[in-house]
Give the backbone structure.
Amino acid sequence: MAHRTTLLLDDETRAAARDLARQYGVTVSEAIRRSVIRQRDLAVGLPAERRAERGRALRRAIELFEGNDPAAEVRRLKAQDAGF
């Protein structure tokens, strides 16, 4: 459920919010929302579900690469690049 909050931004903060919005390609409000979430994650740490999601992704990546020889893969890629 969304709640409306009014923020009073000084000129520097307003300009920074506009720069972020332009960089993200979103509205200033969305840029501020993303920034608040990002700052929370940095200060408090990721929520448990997000950490679990990343752990699952890492385990899946390990499964996908299991049994591959990295040195052989590098040799194969270099051989492909030699033709260019």
Summary: The first helix runs from residue 11 to 24.
